[in-house]
User: Which sequence fits this backbone?
């Protein structure tokens, strides 16, 4: 008889267990299934999004056909450095594709992860209000503490998307002037004329002068004496420029015949005449040096003097008289 209470308790437990299982079937099976479904859907969406991003980036950055490249060149679009050097074009295109694709993939992954975590917490029964409030406070604190870092990354993204400059371009970023060696989301590396490597934060770049896009211009100011016939000077300069355009060594460098723009200024030492010509990018400096040499020879052959700096002094003799003299 002493064992009757124990037997009754075991019987009640045996009867209550199936009832508890039937009452909590939704919680034991439904919630894990819904969580697993959420995880599967998020993973599937992430995979499809990454595949779509890869296709879009490759489509935007893939090399165009020759006709499309020529059309963009005539319309003034796209970096000419890409048309000029196929190996550099491939390097630049791959760098942009990798960077933009990785950033977009990371953004999609973070957003999907946050949405998935929120949905899982909701299934478990955790209130999302306090969690979102805490996350907002943390995000605000991080935003205030990392404003420069955020600005650097956003500027780097815009630089790459807009293709303001790329590897191999000759740029002027203020104090840093030289050739771009690397473009990242946070930093840009520029090698200057003396070999120094500049590390510039993208958020600090206020303006960019790119000497490598579309075309460049070689500008030469020629000083002649006041006694020179300007019509003769114009003729000599135009003939010299036309002859240089006909030279096979510069046929693919000069995009047009050099033109005389006229008198640029009237200086104390002579008249300054400007000669200009449109060139392919990064060739303007070499064209200017060669044009300067040819102009010097042509002016000498035509008997047109290039003036020396003149200085005027007063000379006082022993008898107290003064005279005016010019030094060349």
Assistant:
């Amino acid at each position: 008889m002493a064992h009757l209470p124990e037997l009754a308790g075991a019987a009640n437990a045996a009867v209550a267990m199936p009832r508890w299982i039937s009452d909590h079937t939704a919680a034991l099976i439904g919630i894990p299934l819904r969580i697993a479904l959420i995880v599967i859907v998020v993973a599937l969406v992430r995979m499809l999004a990454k595949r779509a991003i890869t296709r879009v980036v490759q489509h935007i950055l893939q090399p165009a056909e020759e006709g499309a490249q020529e059309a963009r060149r005539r319309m003034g679009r796209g970096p000419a450095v890409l048309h000029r050097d196929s190996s550099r074009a491939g390097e630049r295109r791959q760098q942009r594709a990798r960077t933009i694709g990785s950033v977009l993939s990371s953004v999609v992954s973070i957003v999907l992860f946050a949405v998935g975590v929120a949905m899982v917490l909701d299934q478990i029964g955790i209130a999302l209000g306090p969690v979102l409030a805490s996350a907002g406070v943390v995000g605000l604190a991080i935003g205030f503490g990392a404003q420069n870092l955020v600005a650097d990354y956003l500027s780097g993204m815009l630089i790459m998307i807009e293709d303001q400059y790329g590897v191999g371009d000759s740029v002027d970023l203020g104090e840093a002037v030289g050739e771009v060696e690397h473009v990242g989301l946070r930093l840009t590396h520029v090698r200057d004329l003396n070999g120094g490597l500049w590390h510039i934060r993208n958020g600090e770049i206020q303006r960019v002068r790119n000497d490598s896009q579309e075309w460049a211009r070689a500008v030469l100011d020629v000083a002649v004496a006041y006694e020179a016939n300007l019509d003769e000077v114009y003729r000599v300069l135009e003939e010299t420029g036309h002859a240089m355009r006909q030279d096979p060594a510069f046929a693919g460098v000069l995009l047009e015949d050099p033109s005389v723009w006229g008198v640029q200024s009237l200086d104390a030492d002579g008249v300054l005449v400007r000669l200009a010509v449109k060139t392919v990018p990064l060739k303007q400096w070499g064209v200017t040096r060669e044009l300067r040499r040819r102009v010097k020879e042509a002016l000498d052959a035509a008997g047109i003097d290039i003036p020396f700096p003149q200085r005027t002094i007063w000379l006082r003799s022993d008898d107290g008289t003064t005279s005016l003299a010019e030094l060349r």
Summary: The longest strand covers residues 216-224. The chain has nine helices and ten strands.
